[in-house]
Amino acid sequence: MLFLFEEIHLSQSKTSNQIQEEGSSAVKQSCVCASKFANGREATFRSRKTIYLLSSVAMLSLSIVAGQFCSDLFEGERCLKKRPEWEKYRESLYYFSTQMSSWTDSRRSCIDLGSDLVKIDSREEQTFLVEKLKTKILHPEDKFWIGLTDSKKEGSWLWVDGSPLDKRLSFWFGTEPDNWSEKNKDGEDCVRMGKHDVTDLECWYDQSCLAPQKSICEKHWLMEM
């Protein structure tokens, strides 16, 4: 397995503990990237100045350290530090939170994770999310907040980044949005998505921003490097 380091010199004579100590420092400074195993026995470690061959024991020791900081491998010898609960699609990571919160509190929770409520930019992204929610929605009212609201001006739907909703990429269910105000006099200014028996992509619903719902957070995967 090929690991690239900014500046680290290793040799076969060093102990596993020494390798772990130096490896930990190097991994913190730069993302460790991997390609292929070399017969499963040896790995080539490359620095700016020197190439060293390490035994399988040394490789295992450093792999354990590296795994604490960078676990997933992607094309182009790039890697991504990500928690298991984040799911990758194209250039984004998604976290499907099961915590029931208002739209504002849900967004705050996403921001605390270095992300924001999801912004849906394409039909393909909507398809991905719908497929994921098929296994996460437990009953008809079990839905997830997305980063869309008209709280500033009724009928003017904006994403959390301030960009307006492209009507060609809207996925309202039936007669939604209807701004129903019987439960809340302020109406329904935030958007949730999901259907229990989903058969198509049209599954957006406006809802009172105060209603407790689950949520979807999104961030660009490069933010994890």
TrEMBL record:
Chain ranges of the C-type lectin domain: 89-218
N-terminal signal peptide: none
Key words of the record: Disulfide bond, Lectin
Pfam families assigned: Lectin_C (PF00059)
Any GO molecular function: carbohydrate binding
Cross-referenced InterPro entries: C-type_lectin-like, C-type_lectin-like/link_sf, C-type_lectin/snaclec_domain, C-type_lectin_CS, CD209-like_CTLD, CTDL_fold
Name of the protein: CD209 antigen-like protein E
